[in-house]
Amino acid sequence: MGSAAVKTDASSRGWKVAAMICRLIVGGLFIYAAQSKIIDPMKFAEEVRAYELAPLALTNLIAIILPWLELIAGVLLIVGLWRVEARLLILLMMLGFTFGKISVELRGLDINCGCWGNDWMEEVFHGIWGVLLNIVLIGMLAADHFAMRRLKLQVVQPPPAL
Amino acid sequence: MNMTTKTHQRVHNGAAATRRAIMLRSLAIVLVTAVVAVGYAAVRGVPWRPDVEALIERGEQHSELRATIGVSLAEFLDLIEQGAIVLDTRSTEAFAEGRLASSRTLVLNIPADEIDAHLVTLEDYRGSTFVLYCTSNQCDLSEEVYLAMIDAGFDPVLMHIYFPGWEGIQEAGLDVESDYTSTATGEPMES
User: Fold this and answer.
1) Confidence band of B187 (pLDDT split at 50, 70, 90)
2) Is this prediction's pTM over 0.80?
3) B36 and B124 part of one domain
4) Residue B114 gets which letter from DSSP?
5) How many domains in chain A?
6) What is the pLDDT of residues A85-117, one digit of tens each?
7) Residue A50 is nearest to which of B30, B36, B138, comparing CB atoms?
8) Domain residues for B23?
9) By CA distance, what is A51's nearest residue in B?
């Protein structure tokens, strides 16, 4: 029983650490991405318009609300408060961003990602690389989800019989 | 209804309630965020609705200019070879940080937000061919300078815009220089 308990403890710790790292990366990136857009919403509105996906009349509203949603969801994900909800919102945003990027690639538009402000992160997430990195981030959200489920199951499961 | 069915029903109801609670809390986050964001925008004086008509007009003007005076990389290089004066319409800081370097022609910094002051400088080059660039395809600064120069009586036939701008120059590996580093070729400048 002793060795099984130690194994379970080690496994739980491993899952917790993995989940924490995933949340820190995804949440941290969302907080980082939000700050430059919150500072300069008009510039972000221009970048939203460059995607040619949303009605022009809504582009300012999107540029005003989206960065704050990124910031708040990112903070909640890292802090672990309303974690499921934060993860769900970030997942929806990621799916939206990925759809936008794929659509831009398919239409051959040569535009900035508009994700990070004017620095090297724009380069990293440019074009098809951006799509692949988004998929990696979605994978991290999935990892956090499965880690949380697994840890819950470990708590619920009765201890193994002697 | 036997015990197992009742248990399943309870579990099912519990899961549905949890999903409902998650949806409601997610919605609450979105609503609170929207209120905070719109409040912040109001304080900053950011309009929540853009001037759609002006945007459409600007878009049409942009497409028209792109089709009529936009030049490809090969044409841009040809114009430089022929001695066309290059106007970098980005800010003074961006120009100092990194710009096109050419031994064949002049590369002048004419920031769009200071165009009125710089029109005097450009008077010395009236009658020359100009090729303008700014940051990237999304940048409107070259168009602003172009329109101001047209208003000031410069010949539109002698004016061109390289729309990919500074990004295109870097991607094409053209010679660049900076006030902060020695002359380099093609590599993006360190900021």
Assistant:
1) very low
2) no
3) no
4) G
5) 1
6) 999 999 999 999 999 999 988 987 777 778 876
7) B138
8) 1-49
9) B138
